[in-house]
Amino acid sequence: MGMFLNSFVPYEEYKAIVRSRFFVDKSSIIDEIISDVTLDGQKYFCITRPRRFGKSVMANMIGAFFGRTTDEEDIFSDLKIAESSYYREYLHCYDVIYIDFSRMPRDCCHYGQYISRIQDGINRDLGKAYPLLKLDAGGAVWDNLQAVFEQSRTKFIFVMDEWDAVFHKSFISETDRKNYLEFLRDLLKGQGYVGFAYMTGILPIAKYSSGSEINMFKEYDMATKEKFSEYFGFLDSEVDCLFEVYRQTTENAKITREDLKKWYDGYHTAAGVRMYNPRSIVCSLTDNQISNYWTSSGPYDEIFYYIRNNIEDVRDDLAMMVSGEKIKIKLLGYAATSTELHTKNQIFSAMVVYGLLTYEDGEVFIPNRELMDKYDELLLSNESLGYIYNLAKESERMLKATLAGDTGTMAGILKLAHDTESPILSYNSEIELSAVVNLVYLAARDRYRVEREDKAGEGYVDFIFYPERKDEDALILELKVGSTPADAIEQIKSRNYVLRFKGKIGEKPKYTGRILAVGISYDRKTKEHSCKVEELFA
Fold this sequence. Notes:
CATH topology of the largest domain: Rossmann fold
Number of strands: 15
Strand order of the largest sheet: 2-3-4-1-5
Radius of gyration: 28 Å
């Protein structure tokens, strides 16, 4: 056993996952890969997904299953793969070379150090495993692998995690990138010793390899390829099972099933499947707390990084997406390199690749509350966003004015919005007005769960502000273009939107604060906003 050849690491890592409380069995992918290799002759798989979508877990599983690290069946005998006809033939029967490309040598400052760790490590492992062959410890890895193959007909399975990690290192030059791709080509392409190669990462190969270096890989991304969709991320049915485990094993369980859906669901695959962010699901159930687990692991993960080169072209779209709208784009599956993110299509395509947006039927949008919080942070902290930033900064004042019934201040802030020159403020429909309302009430999301087009009473209300604390005031907000705020409040009353705040008969009220009806209107002729606030009685 070595650092790269038949390493214990994948087995131990996956065993810990299998034995954890919130485990989801995705082992059927092994059966599908074996079928592709044996029946179709496919040998090269590259699966790309955003961060936190289980890529490393799956890589560990595949390395643990095939590798000769143990005779035990304890972690696979009860999984779905055990039902496969391939199970006995392939379990722990192959030499696996496992490479985590995100790992660096100590004090690494240039590509030579990085790649030497990998080549020297594999050569060292091969020398220990095949001492009689007298392999060249300082030679090319592929030559030593070929020598083993010629002598013993041994084929190797390559499992390579985070293949693109090196591209994000500051010391990597364009020449280094080319050399790295050539290393992968020499190691894998057309080599008889390759049983199959399974590679994961965030970035598609096409992002960096426009030629033939590693074009033998078939690539599977989330937005455009249907195959393998169900294995990365959690399905609704899987979250149902995890939630039941959570409910039965957690004292004073605080999370609802609805919470999990609103916060972590909403990612779309090309197969039409909605997926949950798996890491966030597991973290929230483990912590017994709904929270934002989308933590940054580097400067390239920040939303602002992608939009900074063309803020003027995308900021209106950002405002619309924060208000819950979808934006049409032409998805660029390869995602332009970071230095070329200038057009809207390039920017939003890259954000889909990194999981900051999701894509469905030609449109991108913000998938869930967890990501929406990140966009809120962006709008409230970047002055370069211009009018969007200015309106967002007014949002605390807007909320205070609303709770106080200060309609003059409310109308003044909305006038400030209209005095900008943004296309979204043309108010040709209530959609544009909704986008502005989202901006001027952005700060409310710290204290309220804001729902748009929520079912209430006998219809759908434009906005409902559910307070996080039961003793805070709740808001029902209706918008009107070409009408009056009195008409908006009359609609709130006549359609019984207030019923949304009533508990079941015999139960205590959900909220003990006031319930305020808020009417906001815009007159296209006079360009004036009017507001009205009225207390309702549940």
